[in-house]
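User: Could you go from structure to sequence for me? I need the amino acid at each position, not a summary. Structure tokens:
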């Protein structure tokens, strides 16, 4: 059973990773194209609206998806009742957000936000309807089907946004992108999952999940609000152009989290849920996942720090040069958050969602305080304040979660040490190359720096981190073989 679960998890990581790589390529290309076609102010307007709509979007799921993944026994009545409960809740939220459109616009002093908020509220209903079909696929560890749905929906949404931007629709290209993506995603998940909700609404079935999901929802709500206060403050006190610069830098920082950490976390949660009674296997699986994430994200974010000046100019153009310092700060934040994001899987898999809520509540004032303290120095100050506060609460949150799972802190930090050392040495190598090539064009310098960084990190990994490197290679090789056998 253990061997079978490990193989399924490895294939899940491969399928999810493959899907996320494709999605990342689609998002990076579309972001670059849209950044060149649109203005920073357009991204700023969307950021203002997203804060409020995104906050309401947390309620659309109501934590039901996580509760379904955690629960081992499910039937059609529970699934259908949960689906319609999500649709009803999200529809009510859409109405509420629509009523708040004018106050939101008045808060920012931007009347043009009213129709944007109204349109984005439609996405709330689609999000609520997605929760159960996606959770069902993950609970059954059918990650290949989930990956197909995500890639195809992302491609169609990005294509739609680019076409609209070329046609001169401005910020509306950004507004329709998530709506189109959510619509296609819902249709594909139901198609690939071969599941349709029956017209059943059994309240006791829903209520049996609410104890678990309520704490998940509350924790997500606090975390979301805390991590988006920076954009609220910048939009209100600095301006939409500055918010556009800050938001794009933040989005770039999130790429490794969304497309590396989330790949593993998405597989890790249902895997840990199935072995939560076995402390040794639970601990080994979690630490292996953390090590793999660090192995990949640490050099990505460290490399971004080293080449940020040329990266911004070459990829986005001179009008985005004000993003460089913020991006350098966020590179270190992204490195830490790529690991911090795994902590939640411990609470979810063990059912300790109430403790997760407490940790989120204690952390919120620290993060908000850091952002407010840095506001005086502009978007750079907010970025620094946010980053310092995040590092300040990292040790606390990790210590609590590891205690729940009986995982020694020494083993946890040992799994991060070698990837961190390799990444730091790689940064020094890349920065030296950038300095020596100061007279070259930005694009030439960028290509050489990235190539040198990849080569140096790989060599360093085989020298100082050989065991973990070989582990990753073996897992990837075995997963590929299993996928080939399944395809045949």
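Assistant: Here is the amino acid at each position, in order:
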């Amino acid at each position: 059973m253990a061997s079978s679960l490990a193989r399924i998890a490895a294939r899940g990581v491969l399928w999810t990773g493959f899907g996320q790589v494709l999605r990342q390529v689609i998002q990076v290309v579309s972001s670059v194209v849209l950044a060149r076609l649109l203005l920073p102010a357009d991204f700023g307007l969307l950021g203002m609206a997203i804060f409020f709509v995104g906050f309401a979007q947390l309620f659309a799921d109501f934590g039901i998806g996580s509760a379904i993944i955690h629960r081992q026994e499910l039937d059609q009545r529970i699934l259908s009742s949960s689906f319609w409960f999500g649709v009803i809740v999200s529809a009510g939220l859409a109405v509420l957000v629509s009523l708040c459109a004018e106050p939101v616009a008045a808060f920012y002093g931007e009347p043009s936000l009213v129709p944007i908020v109204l349109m984005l509220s439609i996405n709330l209903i689609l999000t609520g309807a997605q929760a159960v079909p996606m959770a069902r696929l993950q609970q059954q560890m059918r990650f290949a089907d989930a990956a197909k749905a995500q890639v195809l929906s992302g491609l169609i949404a990005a294509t739609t946004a680019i076409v609209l931007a070329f046609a001169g629709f401005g910020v509306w290209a950004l507004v329709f992108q998530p709506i189109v993506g959510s619509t296609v995603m819902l249709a594909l998940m139901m198609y690939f999952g071969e599941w349709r909700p029956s017209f059943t609404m059994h309240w006791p079935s829903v209520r049996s999940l609410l104890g678990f999901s309520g704490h998940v929802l509350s924790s997500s709500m606090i975390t979301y609000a805390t991590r988006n206060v920076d954009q609220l403050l910048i939009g209100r006190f600095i301006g939409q152009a500055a918010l556009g610069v800050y938001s794009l830098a933040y989005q770039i920082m999130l790429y490794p989290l969304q497309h590396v950490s989330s790949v593993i976390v998405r597989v890790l949660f249902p895997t840990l849920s199935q072995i939560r009674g076995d402390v040794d296997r639970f601990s080994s699986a979690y630490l292996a996942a953390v090590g793999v994430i660090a192995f990949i994200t640490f050099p990505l974010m460290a490399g971004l720090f080293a080449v940020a000046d040329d990266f911004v100019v070459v990829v986005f153009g001179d009008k985005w040069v004000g993003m460089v310092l913020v991006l350098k700060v966020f590179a270190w934040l992204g490195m830490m958050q790529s690991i911090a994001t795994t902590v939640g899987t411990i609470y979810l898999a063990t059912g300790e969602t109430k403790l997760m809520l407490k940790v989120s509540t204690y952390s919120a004032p620290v993060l908000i305080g850091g952002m407010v303290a840095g506001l005086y120095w502009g978007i750079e100050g907010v970025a620094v304040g946010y980053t310092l506060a995040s590092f300040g609460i990292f040790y606390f949150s990790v210590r609590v979660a590891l205690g729940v799972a009986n995982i020694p802190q020494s083993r946890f930090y040992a799994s991060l040490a070698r990837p961190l050392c390799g990444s730091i040495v790689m940064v020094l190598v890349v920065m030296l190359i950038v300095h020596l090539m100061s007279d070259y064009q930005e694009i030439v310098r960028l290509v050489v720096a990235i190539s040198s960084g990849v080569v140096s990190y790989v060599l360093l990994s085989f020298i100082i981190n050989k065991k973990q490197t070989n582990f990753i290679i073996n897992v990837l090789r075995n997963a590929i073989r299993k996928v080939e056998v399944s395809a045949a």
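One structural detail worth keeping in mind: The mean pLDDT is 82.
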